[in-house]
Amino acid sequence: MKAKVWGALLAVYLVWGSTYLMIRFVVETLPPFLSAGLRFVVSGILLLAWRRLAGDAVPTWRQWRSAAIVGTLLLLGGNGLVCWAEQTVPSGVAALIIGAVPLFLVIADALRPNGVRPTLRVLAGLFIGFAGIYLLVGPTAYSDGMPLNMAGVAALLLASLLWAAGSIYSKTADLPKSALMTTGAEMLAGGLALLVVSVLSEKWSVFSLAQVSIDSWLALAYLIVFGSMIGFASYAWLLQNAPISLVATYAYVNPLVAVFLGNWFAQEPLTPHILSAAAIIIGAIVFMNSSRGSPAKPAAARGVGE
Length: 306
Fold this sequence. Notes:
mainly alpha, about 0% strand, 13 helices
């Protein structure tokens, strides 16, 4: 059993850590909202069909409505904006900003009715974490020779906020009991929302399938098969068979995997500046979680880029 746990955990580390790099390759020649929409519609249909054949109940209309709200916030507002931002922001930097989602979750949880008020230790962690984000994208990034597109950075911060809002909403929403059936419904609903935004906003008059590279198609296939199917199946299995404190370490490891893969395969910068910001952001999240005894089960069971 221990070997299976570590095998599944390694799959989550590597697969979800690599999704940011794959998104970068996808959006090089595919429109961001179109590619994300195709990914999640296909993944959602496959997951729903699999779980239906396995005997899971079909979601009720009320559950479909909840899944549509959560899927739109998480996948259109979260993942869609990540795809859009990665047209101009390095995948490793994007992963580090999105890695700070737990900071936004604390804020969103505190602001909701009857929410959990942060302790002084958590407030200190929030301050440290946002200081790390400022170090990563603020004026010092320019002095380090790594100017960032501020529209892309703003999109990533908004993606984190919308992901946090969707995650908090999902805590009390009426959703299917099966985690994978819920994921499939959210993917299908969110994917359809992404396709609608693609039709309304992307420049179809200048787009041609002939311009899409093989690398982009292969990266999209990887995101569907590995990022959305194998990654989620491994995660769902871990939630049932491993300590949640161990499973939650993916939130600390994935940004680092993304940073190093972006450097190795896309020649993205890996400077002491970036590594210092990474250490501060991840350290702040570990510091906050340690104040709660063990990390809470991640809402919606995943992270934005996955």
